[in-house]
Design goal:
alpha+beta, 95 residues, two-stranded antiparallel sheet, 27% helix
Amino acid sequence: MGQPTEIFLYGRFPETSEGRSKTRNIKLADSVSLGEFLSRAGIPVTSVQLVMVNHKAVGKDAMIRPGDRVSIFGQEYPVFADWLWQRRVMQRTRD
């Protein structure tokens, strides 16, 4: 059927997720875009400050694969300098 993909929610997401715990699983059969993944998780893209996949910050064009560990941080989370630096490095390596 699909392999579970772990989601770790930080910030106000349990409120918007009908009181669910901060850790959830979604089963994926194939890779999906980050936007599709957030949609399946019921998380509005506009409420996301940062997404990390397997402990690495990713951009909006990231693909989520079955078995990944996805951490999602809400808009109320401050973006630390090292996160910004990591985003810039990842963008440069893709260009």
